[in-house]
Specification:
mainly alpha; two-stranded antiparallel ribbon; 5 helices
Amino acid sequence: MRDYNEIAEYWSFMGVDAYNTYFFGQEDWINDDVATNFLKKYSIMENEEHLIRDIQQSIFDLDNHLPEMIFKKNFQFFTLLGGSTFTPDDFDQFKSCLMKMKSSFFYVFQDTYKLDEKESRMALKMKFPVETSWN
């Protein structure tokens, strides 16, 4: 079983506050209980970990690494500039596509390429319901 407390503690000590959110207010910033509860709610379960490899193999050419083309030929992609993957509008468009495909969840996996064993074990592997809001 994944140790959510250990993962939250790892990211806290790494100086990365990404597991927490400003929306809870400053008093909860770097609150390990909030982080642990978030991880319990959204981390994939160990029995779902095989999904990561299955999904990666369906999208990526795992024999290539950047800067080579890593997506399989039947995929199209576009680059977003800036510091975040999605703006709120981009996220709404993404969710709209998922709903049209009748998807229930979407996954966000931290890239573990070139990470050591412990870093890979602590990697964030999240599963969110399509109804998730930007906030």
